[in-house]
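Help! Submission page says 'invalid entity' but I think these are all valid:
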Amino acid sequence: MPEQIIFKREEDMPYLPITFGSMAWNKTGTWRYLRPKFENKISPCIEGCPAGQDIEGAMVLIGKGKILQAWDLFKEENPFPAVCGRVCFHPCESSCNRGEFDEAVSINALERFMADMASRHGRKPLGKREKRKEKAAIVGSGPAGLTCAYHLARLGYGVTVFEALPVLGGMLRVGIPEYRLPKKVLEEEIDQILELGVKAEVNVRLGKDFLMNDLKEYQAIFLAMGNHQSKSLGIPGEDTQGIMSGLEFLKNVNLGKAVALGKRVAVIGGGNTAIDAARSVLRLGSKPFILYRRTREEMPAFLGEILEAEEEGIEISYLVSPVRVIAENGKVSRLECLKNRLGPADEDGRRRPVEIKGSNFFLEVDQVIAAIGEEADLSPLPKKLGLKENAVLTDERGATRQKGVFAGGDIIQQPRTVVHAIGSGKRAAIFIDCFLKKKKWEGLFEAIRIGEQGTLSMKRYLQAENERASLSSKTVRLKDLNLDYFDYKKRKKMPKTQVAKRVGSFEEVNQGYAEETAVAEAKRCFNCGVCNLCDNCYIYCPDVAILKQGEDGPNVIDYDHCKGCGICVEECPRDAMVMEEERR
Amino acid sequence: MYERRELMYAGHQACAGCGATMSMRYALKALGEKTILVIPACCWSVLAGPFPYSALQVPVIHTAFETGASTASGIKAGLEMRGDTETTVAAWVGDGGTFDIGIQALSGAAERNDDIMYFCYDNEAYMNTGIQRSSATPFGTWTTTTPANHPKGQPKKNMMEIMAAHRIPYAATCTVAFPEDMMRKISKAKAIRGTRFIHIYSPCPTGWKAPSSLSVKIARLAVHTKIFPLYEVEGGERYNINVDPKNLPVDEYLRLQGRFAHLTDDEVHTTQETVDREWERLVKKALD
């Protein structure tokens, strides 16, 4: 810091008043009564992702062409980016601030893109931490169970997964058709989990082949058996040959068993299973049509799936309920149906179908696939675990009432989606770790949660307290951004297989981004609440008080000279700075 | 993208949020260290600091109010005598020293096409002496000499047109909200010989009664409301508009500043009409 210059004698004075030093000694920071500060906040996409993936961070990396590093970031939280990049209902995109501005960033397609790139490069997830002697048993190898296994294995525990079916993957393997999620994609991600040392036993069903009591050698248990039991239609003639549940049908197709369908196939239901079943029927060469008792408005299936089914020419009849199956020669031949109108709303807010008396009509069918919902089979579980309404009760950690037993996925009370299952598996891994290490978990939530919707960060969990970046509890909304710095830009579309090629083939429908498209799409991200070194603060500072630390930052404020004008905070496009009162 | 080297030090004496210092910082990034600045009486006479200090890393000559252009012409002549053709001589003058007090010296230099750069950082009043109106102050503005019950009744003088009428090789407008545009124009001007005039719109939170945090935002709005269009004029004839304004209503700009708080709807309307008319004239010239 240059000193002030003092002329002690007249002779020291120059002949002309010329400069001897800079003004840097003048600490104009003392003028300040407001103080700017860099403060990262929560991006709504990350808060909206139940798996807690650092989406904003990955967008920055993809934008710079660092695709594999972006994948590492996702893989830190979720073992299934290739799966999620295909089948997730992407609540991140519904939370994306860009959605209110023009169109949400295509996060889901980008997740798939980086996973495909990682696969081409043979990239592996980061390995284990220190080895621990404790062991954990996981019942069910769906997204919840395998996510828990992945994280526990990386935390150093010995993990064994017990699976009732002959293959690993749960619903991902037997419930989702090939054209949405190719087997080799799923298998690659499962193999990466097994490579961490996770042991798996297949064809062992809880309640039949083993009991909870047989798991005594394990210090912790995670239950994630999923909802594999189909609800029945409850109409006369249901047991006739030629009637099958949606799940059973998809399972048979996925396990490569021959399925004889006949020509006309009625699929009953409006959920994702119904759509998946109908689209699979089409691919097997039969003619499917969907019967749904309410209207498209109330359909629980994801809109994108409905649109693709319609694209493929699958007919969906709304406001229709089957009431009787009519058999001929012991096999289904006709379906008697009733027409409905919409009545008042149910407790879930959807309008209830009301039958119109006398509106009966008949449909010629060769096969009926009933996909009206799935439920859990909790009969092998002891009551003392805490069961309610065919679900396992858990606390905020995912722990049941029995010490050391945790639960997740579709058998607990949470939305039945792949990404919620993954989130519950990760949560259980974190709190099983706490349980086994006898670590205090109260107060941990504040340190590792991202926002208010229950999203947890494994990265933050693994960091020591002093290395965790400070994170405000504020979620950034569109109104918090300086939109002068963003231009309207349409979202990039993913190429799809032509409709004509989809019939009769289980080839994947969505084809994924090219690298150039992906990089451009990632750059559409606003990076809400997180400094991406755009340098507006540095450029506009009238007092040269934002200092660059090389090209990779972070930028630093020179409080000796910052006068607290607030331009940096005002001109920050992404709400990554705040102004606070100066304490003196 | 930006020249990282800073030729302006922290510790200068400007108010918080000063547009004139942002302007100086960008200008020096574009001009480089081989530059001599001539600063007549204006805010920057004070901002640069008292003897024996300077907030600038280039030679500065402080001079009398009306002599910005003539001193620059003299220094340039001196350098040429010594065979230095490389150093840029730039007058750095406020709007009072340009529009009012220094206009004869500037007109003389421009008429002779002296090889100097002339920067007018325009904060639309005599801010350094206490916010007195200048001929750069816009219609309806409050200043200490045009109080709210008797605001300025005349429109802002069109200095760019006066300079274009001298048919100098280059004249351009720029502002702090568009630093890339500013640095590009200054670099371009630096490479041209003859008199080059750069008119910089520099917000003054103190004199405009605006929050210091809004300096850049106000400058951006000045461009997008067409109040201060960004354009360049080559040879006094070839007009080129550089930023497409978003065509926002002038009210969005006016209402952020206390100096316009007293304006009636009619006066805002008058301002809008004047701005629209001036813009149409400018577009016509750019299309010519």
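Support: the input was valid. A stray whitespace character was the problem, and the output above is from the cleaned input. The interface with chain B takes residues 5, 7, 14, 17-28, 31-32, 484, 535, 539-540, 542-545, 548, 558, 560-561, 563-567, 569-571, 579 of chain A (CB under 8 Å).
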